[in-house]
């Protein structure tokens, strides 16, 4: 988590900072083999050099970016969890709960789907 300390320190809103730290810490603990890094000014996790999931802070939500394939696969579950999404990201409102079970499924899906991927992004 040390790699994210400067990013977290720059989040002015204490509630947003705490929620972001909670989610990043959960991912790091649940998937200890993933590499934590900052790229494109956002925290992300990679596996064997390929992107698995990224996060960013917005005014009204924590944005989760697992790639479009994952969002398409879990679109119904994302909506059922009460989140909105675009083609590239899922929005978790600051004032609502984090569905860690859904987050786990999305990360696991990406790890499995990209097991043989040799590029950072899907082609």
UniProtKB/TrEMBL annotation:
Residue ranges constituting the YdhG-like domain according to the UniProt record: 16-111
Instruction: List the InterPro entries.
Output: YdhG-like
The protein, known as: YdhG-like domain-containing protein
**Lineage in the entry?**
Bacteria, Bacillati, Bacillota, Bacilli, Bacillales
């Amino acid at each position: 988590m040390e790699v994210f300390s400067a990013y977290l320190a720059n989040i002015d809103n204490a509630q947003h900072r705490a929620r972001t730290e909670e989610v990043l810490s959960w991912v790091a603990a649940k998937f200890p083999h993933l590499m934590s890094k900052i790229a494109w000014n956002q925290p992300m996790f990679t596996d064997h050099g390929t992107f698995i999931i990224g996060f960013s802070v917005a005014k009204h939500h924590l944005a989760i970016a697992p790639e479009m394939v994952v969002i398409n696969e879990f679109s119904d579950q994302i909506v059922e969890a009460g989140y909105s999404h675009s083609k590239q990201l899922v929005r978790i409102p600051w004032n609502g709960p984090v569905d860690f079970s859904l987050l786990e499924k999305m990360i696991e899906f990406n790890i499995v789907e990209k097991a043989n991927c040799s590029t950072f992004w899907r082609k």
